[in-house]
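Below is how a single chain appears once it has passed through the pipeline. First comes the sequence as given, then the structure the pipeline wrote out for it. We keep one example in the README because the format questions we get most often are answered faster by looking than by reading.
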Amino acid sequence: EKKKSTIDSSHNLSDQDSYIPVNMKTAILASLIAAASAFAPAKQAATTTSLSAFEGELGVQPPLGFWDPFGLLNGADQERFESLRYVEIKHGRIAMLAFLGNILPRAGIYLPGDIDYSGHAFSSYPAGIAAIKGADSIPFNGVGQIICFIGFLEITFMKDVPGTGNEFVGDFRNGFIDFGWDTFSEEEKLQKRAIELNNGRAAQFGILGLMVHEKIQEIGYDPDLPIIGHL
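Resulting structure:
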């Protein structure tokens, strides 16, 4: 009887011994997995708006497509995009006026009449930066009036008034100026908005190019530019 109990005990010990290595291996493997997962890169949370969300916006077109070289829209939401679009449209409109205001006088096209009560005609002042800076420039009082007039437009008309039926960013009709906009189809509206946006982009480069060419004349380079010739 004693011998049988000894044999049974030895069998139980051998069975436990056979389970120990298996359990140890399982525990070690679980520890390794836990350690590895601790150093694994965490899954990134989805941003509110991905860059692909802007690829269908107005102005995204060949050959550049969606082009954001400075990463201004990285992690941006729709509100941020519309803020940047507002700035782009407004700068484009200013640049278009500036470009026309530069090349039209060079082509001999001026406003009729005099610029002041002293009898100075609009055509008596030079074009470009020389109109506001230099010996023959418009007097300071005249430049001040121009600045005040621009400020007046900024605080009265050139802004988006909520609740007036404006349809998109940069829509300054404010329920007052229309020029037949409501008669256009949605496709025509998108086309005209795209034309304005692209013309504004081109004008920003155009006026910048004219300003640069005016300055390089000071170092003896007098380029013969298309359309306007010599500055």
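The mean pLDDT is 79.

See the next section for the split statistics.
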